[in-house]
Structures are given as structure tokens and as C-alpha cells.
Sequence to fold (147 residues):
Amino acid sequence: MTLAITNHYVDLNEKDGAKFINPFTRNLATWCNKKVRNIIFFYAPQHKFNTKKAGRLIRQVVKLESEWNLKPINIRYYLAKTSDELQILKGFDFALPMRNRDKPSGISDDTVEEHPQADLNNIEDFWCPDPHTDPGSAKSDTSFTEM
Fold:
């Protein structure tokens, strides 16, 4: 079973010879970054940085620091449209969790397609929608509409 397909990068220089380098560091060099207070936001060049949203996060962090009497720490925040983009950033071409829609993993597009009566605004509609996520489904054949 293949769990992951990864990229490996080798740096060649006269002083150290050949050595492996971290794909995360290499790939991150192509991303943009912006520092706001104590948070460095990293994002792909095609991503538009939203200063207002960053400001809201900063206000929440400041509030947390104040309420819990914490000193600020440096935070690295990686923005991506999908978790797959973050996996690729780490050097994975494929990892078992990536693009794995045929495996049960909780709420997905498949859940909504299979159960059009599901109300996305009502979390109770997603409590145990199918046999893969319903721990009692092996004992009973309860359909989504009978819950």
C-alpha cells in the first residue's frame, strides 16, 4: 500500500557536498509573506492577502493574551485554499489523506449529494449521516431520514 509519494531535494555545494534539504523550506521560498504584529502570514502568490481578516485575527489574539495574561509569541500562519496545498508545500505529491473522497472522513460533498434534505446550517443533520460515520450502523440499518 502506498501511503505517500514525496519529493526529495538535494543541495549540491563544494563546502558540504550533497545534502538533502527540507522541501517545506524550498517550496515556501516561492510563497509571499506579510507580518502583522507577532504573526507572519505565509500564502501562495495567487492568494490575495486580506488585511481586514488578519486584523480580526490579531484582535482575537490580543484579547486571548489579555484574558489569560500571556506574553505575545511569534506565530507562523500558513494560508491555503485546501489542505492539499499545504501537503504539497511540505513536499507531498500524494498522501493518503489527499484527494481521498472515496474513504469516509466526515462531512463531504458526497454527504450533501447523497442526502439533499440535509440542512447545512443545522449541525444535527450531520450527526451520523451514513454507515461509515455511524458507530451503531453495524447493528442497525438506520437511514439518514429516520434519525
Remarks:
- The CA atoms of residues 42 and 136 lie 42 Å apart.
